[in-house]
Write a structure and sequence with these properties.
Strand content: under 5%
Largest sheet: 2 strands, antiparallel
Shape: globular
Order of helices and strands: HHHHHEEH
Number of strands: 2
Strand order of the largest sheet: 1-2
Distance between the termini: 47 Å
Radius of gyration: 18 Å
Structural class: mainly alpha
Length: about 160
């Protein structure tokens, strides 16, 4: 099981690094110039083998899970250390932070300061909607009962006007 987990993590990092130089390229462009080996530079001008925020955030999550029980605040703190201090990066540099990720981290900071509800709004095609990439700030409600993230997700994402 340990080898499978390690293989999965390494596979994620390698596949991510293969994709970094060609991120946002069209399928047609990739058909004409397929990725057949580890390349560099491209979209973000990063050296070959550089993984993206996808791998960095996965490493943050795994590090938190290896050291603690599920602790959403700890996970978010590790995400912030990635964004602010370039921890968990391939070369000590954060070269891209997605809009939804940045907004989620900003909402976490506000929540941590004010204990506000932790919900992320993003804009897409001119319409405001909540992203499914939000993280519940605590695995328990104020009453101490476990939170059902699926129920929260459905309630928050199916509000029709």
């Amino acid at each position: 099981m340990k080898n499978r987990l390690l293989g999965g993590i390494l596979g994620l990092a390698v596949a991510d690094a293969v994709g970094v130089p060609v991120e946002f390229q069209s399928r047609e462009s990739l058909r004409c110039n397929p990725v057949t080996d580890m390349k560099g530079y491209g979209t973000y001008n990063q050296s070959p083998g550089t993984w993206s925020d996808d791998t960095s955030l996965t490493l943050c999550l795994l590090d938190s899970l290896a050291n603690k029980k599920i602790d959403c605040a700890d996970i978010m703190q590790r995400f912030l250390s990635w964004m602010d201090e370039a921890k968990y990066t391939a070369h000590g540099e954060v070269f891209d932070v997605g809009i939804a990720t940045r907004k989620a981290l900003q909402r976490f900071i506000a929540w941590a300061k004010n204990s506000e509800p932790f919900v992320v709004f993003v804009r897409s095609n001119g319409y405001e909607h909540e992203t499914r990439k939000f993280i519940v700030p605590s695995p328990h409600t104020a009453s101490g009962r476990p939170v059902d993230p699926q129920r929260i997700s459905q309630r928050r994402h199916h509000r029709h006007r």
